[in-house]
Fold this protein.
Amino acid sequence: MAKKVPIAVVRRLPRYFRYISELYRQNIMKVSSKELSEKMQVTASQIRQDFNHFGGFGQQGYGYNVPTLNNEMSQILGVNENFSAIIVGIGNLGHAIANNVNFTKRGVRILGLFDSDPEKIGKPCGVHVIADVASLPEFCKKSRPDVAILTLPKNAAKDMFDRLKELGVRGFWNFSNTEIRSEDGVAVENVHIGDSLMLLTYRLREMSDDSEN
Amino acid sequence: MAKKVPIAVVRRLPRYFRYISELYRQNIMKVSSKELSEKMQVTASQIRQDFNHFGGFGQQGYGYNVPTLNNEMSQILGVNENFSAIIVGIGNLGHAIANNVNFTKRGVRILGLFDSDPEKIGKPCGVHVIADVASLPEFCKKSRPDVAILTLPKNAAKDMFDRLKELGVRGFWNFSNTEIRSEDGVAVENVHIGDSLMLLTYRLREMSDDSEN
DNA sequence: TAGATTGTTAATCGATTAACAATC
DNA sequence: TAGATTGTTAATCGATTAACAATC
């Protein structure tokens, strides 16, 4: 794991993990790069190249042992590090994320939900009770969450990011329709769900263009 | 717009659109590839190359006219085609998508929401009333939705896809934690929100590795 | 051992960046 | 006209695929 892994490889890892953990769940013991390549619709060569960035965990003449592969992948992606997280902004989206994303499967534990709306504070959401964002400084000092999930309005997101960074949060999963740039010691993942809808409409338009010509 | 646009370029389009439509909203009339490159943290060269896949809409010595650019981008992405859509599966996620995604901005109009749970059928959700999935054949014949947004459980998604494809739906925005492959005349966008969380934990793990060495 | 499949090097392909002539 | 910035070609860089020796 010495030299830097190319970004193109890194971005494929979650998809590998999905397929491998599914095989593992099904108690399948062995998979070859060829079999996996057919399932995933990528070349076997790419799979072998990709895996080898992290050291060879296959065996010549046999293939890959699924439990080993699953374990290595989990290690690489950090899904058994048991990171802690908070969700800030409990509107429709925050609520859906709190209740829909399988955090456990990805090694993340939700410590608490926060909102600034007095209507919401104190109300339950899933297994949690929504707390006041005003209590965040105290909360962070005590519980030291690793990650903050930002599901608040666009204009409030950057401010909250700055505050939480100050309070020691190191990872941000940002759904606020604005791009927060990762700086020095923090990692930021900006999610723009709408982008994928635009790719769909692009392809739909492309399809009708084709059929008309 | 003759030769095929590289996939790498296509995937950057939604991000361009976000930045350009923001400039447009701010009534800014002019932007150069250099200015845009600084805002977006990409090279000016890449911006010019990318835009030129769709024909030159800049002007030498001046830059790009923002309204023109915005209009071209909208055209390319199909956001003023006025596509119609339905949402199938109104759990937490379906509910959040119905109420959180700015469909209008992307040229998509929601015609209706559908679920199979008798508890939900007839209940309101935003401006809509949840209808029975059993009414889909009739509904599709009459209203011909272009797109189906699949926010139902993993195991039900593929079946629903097959049924809706049969009923003439051509675009699928799939949130069901399973990969549906696009076939012949349909376009599928599979969304795996969790993948982005894993990229975040990957980077967090990487960061702590670095600081420990 | 023979067959299979990895790990890895070399070849190809595509994407990004640099450079600059064209031109507004 | 002089200055600026595009459109586009050429050079570089990185990613993917092919091929095969190593080896289980």
Summary: Chain B has a mean pLDDT of 95. Residues 14 and 91 of chain B are 27 Å apart (CA to CA). Strands of chain B lie at 30-31, 58-59, 63-65, 83-88, 108-115, 124-125, 128-132, 147-150, 171-174, 187-190. Residues 193-212 of chain B form the longest helix (20 residues).
